[in-house]
């Protein structure tokens, strides 16, 4: 008998599994009275209630959807630093029993349950709890999320499908995420043909959205492990453009645009003062990241603290800072309501929930 639950896997990290799950839960809540969530094996975590380690995604879903399941059940296993060695030394008992019992409690209290995996299907093998095995233990069908594309995306999918099939798991369908608009029609035409060899349907084709991939100032503060020098009330500001400024002051003035993140050395007093002055004249909705071995001097710091521009100081050379910025993938945050709502909207409009559920659902 098909359970009213689904395991959401992916072909890798940072393919949009969490943002997709936000939309899936929101859509399912329009079809079922109560929807639960569990992430059996987590890695990135926070500590709550003094000593309870909980996966970050679990906190996000718990607070966005006001879920009432206890954190201990929603996040039963956390692979913290040192956990793998402890497991191999025999210090953690049966992880399988812990996961199954947590799932059963959440499943029994909800009309439908989303189970989110971690990374690609094989993640967790070292502790004998990879995504394929967990889905098999829970008796669930799997939906696999992968980045939009054709050749390389399908190659990655094939590896993950084979691992699922080795555990006799039924693959309910595939969701393509971040599909570029100019390739959408081609992908919708050819990807189902490629999936036909396994008789697996394409149940979602979610378009790429630049906004969802745009970090906030708070994301950058966490990336550089630094505090705001000013205006932390704008910590959730997003930027349309990023600009490394190493040019003359005249050239900088000529190209100032709204909603731009400026990256420049902390020694460039002229650029800092010009940015602060321009923001006094008009609401540019900008921000700054200052770099270099030395923080801004006292006079500049005084002016920064009294400004309305969110500014960070990253104590590293500009080159290293830009490398971090350009390779950074931000996780969606519960307080970033505009991004949460956009993720939900995109998924709800681009996923076939009838194919996802494959069961007769009850209206609220």
Write the layout of secondary structure elements.
Blueprint: E1 5-10, H1 17-29, E2 35-38, E3 41-42, E4 45-48, E5 52-55, H2 56-64, H3 71-74, E6 77-78, H4 83-88, H5 95-108, E7 112-120, H6 131-138, E8 142-147, H7 151-166, E9 171-179, H8 184-195, E10 202-207, H9 217-223, E11 228-230, E12 241-244, H10 249-254, E13 260-265, H11 269-281, E14 287-291, H12 298-305, E15 311-314, H13 318-327, H14 337-350, H15 353-357
Parallel strand pairs: 1-7, 1-8, 2-7, 3-6, 8-9, 9-10, 12-13, 13-14, 14-15
Antiparallel strand pairs: 4-5, 11-15
Helix pairs in contact: 1-14
Q: Return the CATH class of the largest domain.
A: Alpha Beta
Principal-axis shape equals globular
* Fraction of residues in helix: 25-40%
The low-confidence runs, each spanning 5 or more residues with pLDDT under 50, are: 360-364
Radius of gyration: 23 Å
User: Given the structure, what is the number of helices?
Assistant: 15
Beta-sheet strand percentage? 15-25%
Number of strands: 15
Quaternary organisation: single chain
The largest pleated sheet is described as: 6 strands, parallel
Return the CATH topology of the largest domain.
Rossmann fold
**Physical arrangement of strands within the biggest beta sheet:** 2-7-1-8-9-10
Order of helices and strands: EHEEEEHHEHHEHEHEHEHEEHEHEHEHHH
What distance lies between the first and last C-alpha atoms, to the nearest angstrom?
A: 23 Å
Number of domains as seen in the coordinates:
2
Q: CATH superfamily of the largest domain, called what?
A: P-loop containing nucleotide triphosphate hydrolases
Mean pLDDT: 93
